[in-house]
Amino acid sequence: QAQLLESGGGLVQAGGSMTLSCVSSVDIRAFDAMGWYRQPPGEERETVAVIYATGGTHVKDPVKGRFTISRDIAKNVVYLQMNSLKPEDTGVYYCSAWGNNPDWFQYFGRGTQVTVSS
Q1: Percentage of the chain surpassing pLDDT 70?
Q2: CA 2 to chain centre
Q3: CA distance 83 to 16
Q4: Is 38 helix (H, G, I), strand (E, B) or coil?
Q5: Computed from CA positions of residues 30, 73, 95, 108, in that sequence, does the dihedral angle turn out positive or negative?
Q6: Are 18 and 9 contacting, i.e. CB atoms less than 8 angstroms apart?
Q7: pLDDT tens-digit series, residues 53-95
Q8: 9: helix, coil or strand?
Q9: What residues pair up with 24 in beta bridges, in sequence order?
Q10: Buried (b) or exposed (e) across 7-34, using 16+ Cβ within 10 A?
Q11: How far is CA 19 from CA 68, 79, 110, in A?
Q12: Three-state SS across 68-117?
């Protein structure tokens, strides 16, 4: 079972930038995809961005144009670059990895808090 460890969260002012990192304990090429989720206070967890094994990416509309997901395969790390942050970006950000070999699996990290002040 893989372990995912997020880092890089904290407090930032609106309009600022922050980069989150997620280190996997196993080779990330074992996953079909990895992604970032977030859970705003009092709300359900939602997908933010996904990077597929092919290298293709998908970023959800609320953060499109502001957030970028990338990876470093050699380091087994996935990043989330967040620019032009807004107070509504506040929440706990979780890294996730999933696949379907031989059966469906999905792992989550423990999360890192991101707080954007107005």
Answers
A1: 100
A2: 16
A3: 6
A4: strand
A5: positive
A6: yes
A7: 999 999 999 999 999 999 999 999 999 999 999 999 999 999 9
A8: coil
A9: 4
A10: ebbeebeeeeebebbbbbeeebeebebb
A11: 9, 7, 17
A12: EEEEEHHHCEEEEEECCCCHHHCEEEEEEEEECCCCCEEEECCCEEEEEE
| Six token digits for residue 16 | 């600022």
Tokens of 89: 């970006």
> Are the C-beta atoms of residues 65 and 73 closer than 8 Å to each other?
no
Tokens of 15: 């309009």
Cα distance between residue 86 and residue 99, in whole Å = 32
| Distance from C-alpha of 49 to C-alpha of 71, rounded to nearest angstrom | 12
